[in-house]
Specification:
This protein has 4 helices and 21 strands. It has helices at residues 3-9, 119-126, 190-201, 294-301; strands at residues 33-36, 40-46, 50-51, 56-65, 69-71, 82-85, 88-92, 103-105, 110-118, 136-142, 146-152, 170-175, 178-184, 208-214, 218-221, 254-257, 270-273, 286-292, 305-307, 313-316, 321-328. Strands 12-13-18-16-17-15-14-21 form an 8-stranded antiparallel β-barrel. Strands 3-11-10-6-7 form a 5-stranded mixed β-sheet, covered by helices on one side. The protein has a 4-stranded antiparallel β-sheet with strand order 1-2-4-9.
């Protein structure tokens, strides 16, 4: 442990931590980690915990002062955040300057910050090797309890789809309200699975809104017209596909392709079921299912809506974005 952390923690008599007392990394689907102490209270959060080499990671952290004390100023700039692998600290991710003087802080003060990090630097520091089939689990945090886990996964953006086992491949969908993990049914709808995973690879959906929300029914997204400025893709309309209707029921968590009155008009827009809709069965192409993050569907479906252009009460009052999709590809054996 670096001198900065050792010096700071000698001033902090520990109380019972809020969570993570076993020292294990916090699961990416868990809430932010908080280390509650008698004098200082740390928290750390990673909004998008799945990353690929070359990504830029932004760590949100905060410190609340519960009792008058003194700290090293660089802690407020993220210098107290360490990198952990397998529960073992590999040292601070940002080095503290030598010869720092202590700074007085008082009860009730709070500090927040964002620490930008390079994923390649973290991988090099971990001394772990990322392979095409395995991800790396790292964690960042203040001491043994206030931590957030990240997963560094292989970059599948240029891997041909015919090299992936799409029955095992997953896609992580990052939203404003948490993340969902989807699996697919290539045996039921191979062309639709290829289309969705292929577009996710190309970042087509990054920055696009869930533009239609009907609570108890579904949330719909994928309209390129709703893409936020500055998104990584400028891809437009996609070719229509022939229907691949199948026997999978439209129940909560199911991914299905949106279309017009023409059964063979699905292209890129999709919807995630929030409830049961039997009348959609064998009329719309089911191609996947959310297997983690069903509570996120509830959060999306409960967003306030108003009347859309067609008069339906389904247009989100505030934009609800797909921030990113990441393909967790499994190569064919």
């Amino acid at each position: 442990m670096l001198p900065l952390i050792a010096t700071a923690l000698t001033l902090i008599p520990l109380a019972l931590p809020a969570q993570g007392a076993d020292g294990n990394p916090v699961d990416p689907l868990a809430e932010k980690a908080v280390n509650t102490v008698e004098t200082l209270e740390y928290s750390i959060d990673v909004v998008i915990p799945y990353l690929v080499p070359g990504d830029k990671l932004v760590v949100d952290y905060s410190l609340k002062v519960n009792k008058d004390t003194s700290i090293l100023p660089s802690i407020l700039c993220g210098a107290g955040i360490e990198l952990y692998v397998g529960g073992k600290s590999l040292g601070a991710v940002v080095e503290a300057p030598d010869g720092e003087s202590m700074m007085a802080v008082h009860k009730g003060m709070s500090f927040e910050g964002k620490l930008p990090l390079d994923v390649n630097d973290l991988v090099r520091k971990s001394k772990l090797k990322l392979t095409q089939t395995d991800s790396l689990e790292l964690s960042l945090g203040f001491g043994p309890t206030a931590r957030a886990m990240i997963k560094v996964v292989p970059d599948m953006s240029d891997v041909p789809l015919d090299k992936l086992d799409l029955s095992k491949t997953e896609v992580v969908i990052f939203t404003d309200f948490g993340l969902m993990v989807a699996k697919f049914f290539p045996d039921k709808a191979p062309n639709h699975v290829n289309r969705f995973v292929g577009l996710a690879q190309k970042h087509f959906y990054d920055g696009i809104q869930f533009h239609r929300i009907v609570r108890g029914f579904m949330v719909q997204g994928g309209d390129y017209h709703t893409r936020a400025p500055g998104s990584p893709s400028d891809m437009g309309a996609q070719p229509a596909m022939k229907a691949e209707f199948n026997d999978i029921k439209h129940v909560k968590g199911i991914l299905s392709m949106a279309r017009t009155n023409d059964p063979n008009s699905a292209s890129a827009q999709f919807f995630i079921m929030h409830g049961r809709a039997p009348y959609l069965d064998n009329n719309y192409t089911v191609f996947g299912q959310v297997v983690k993050g069903l509570d996120v569907i509830d959060k999306l479906a409960n967003q306030p809506v108003g009347r859309g252009p067609g008069g339906e009460n389904s247009k989100p009052i505030k934009p609800v974005y797909i921030r990113k999709m990441l393909v967790l590809g499994v190569p064919k054996s």
